[in-house]
Amino acid sequence: MRLKPFIIAAGLALATALAGCSSIGTTRIFTNDYGAVTDAGYQLPRIPIQKIPRKYHRQIVRYDTAEKPGTVVVDPANKFLYFVMPDGKAMRYGVGVGREGFGWHGTARIAMKREWPTWTPPAPMIKRQPELAKWRGGMPPGLTNPLGARALYLFNKHGDTGYRLHGNPEWKSIGRNVSSGCIRLMNQDIIDLYNRVEIGAKVIVL
């Protein structure tokens, strides 16, 4: 029984090694960048960032990876998203990831970027939560929309994966397993990522 923690730790270490990346050391942290924001006519509220663990605040970290700058790497186990930058660095964001039974891993590409997107719950979600049927034709953009201020749409060789990197008004969900497989960021963070990442960028979910 004593071997179980070691096996889990070794598995996580192996996953990181297979991705060819590791991070250590923060070079800059953006804790003061979570104030109220006016964006496209919407007033995003201030995030009480002091209530969120410091490790999930947006920050530039040293990051050793074989992936080229512009790549996005998601580490669901540690609830981090890395945007690879030049010179061995990355912008790191705290994220919320898929709850048990909804997590996934693999490689995709960002095929579309949308500001203040419409959210359309997929049929399986409506089946699980019938109250969402009213949004079958799409929930309009807004402060309560689950996709938040921005969405990045992930496609692979088979087409739309159905998964997104997106904002979310529920800042308390960062650092938790909460979604149906999408990767969610604080709204202020998804705006920052949206402005950095390009269509066609590679996305790796470990």
TrEMBL record:
GO terms for molecular function: glycosyltransferase activity; peptidoglycan L,D-transpeptidase activity. GO terms for biological process: cell wall organization; peptidoglycan-protein cross-linking; regulation of cell shape. Residues 70-206 form the L,D-TPase catalytic domain. Pfam families: YkuD (PF03734). The keyword Signal applies. Belongs to the YkuD family. It comes from Manganibacter manganicus. Keywords: Cell shape, Cell wall biogenesis/degradation, Glycosyltransferase, Hydrolase, Peptidoglycan synthesis, Signal, Transferase. This is L,D-TPase catalytic domain-containing protein. The lineage of its organism: Bacteria, Pseudomonadati, Pseudomonadota, Alphaproteobacteria, Hyphomicrobiales. SUPFAM superfamilies: L,D-transpeptidase catalytic domain-like (SSF141523). GO terms for cellular component: extracellular region. Pathway: Cell wall biogenesis; peptidoglycan biosynthesis. The keyword Cell wall biogenesis/degradation applies. Residues 1-19 form the signal peptide. The active site is at residues 166, 182.
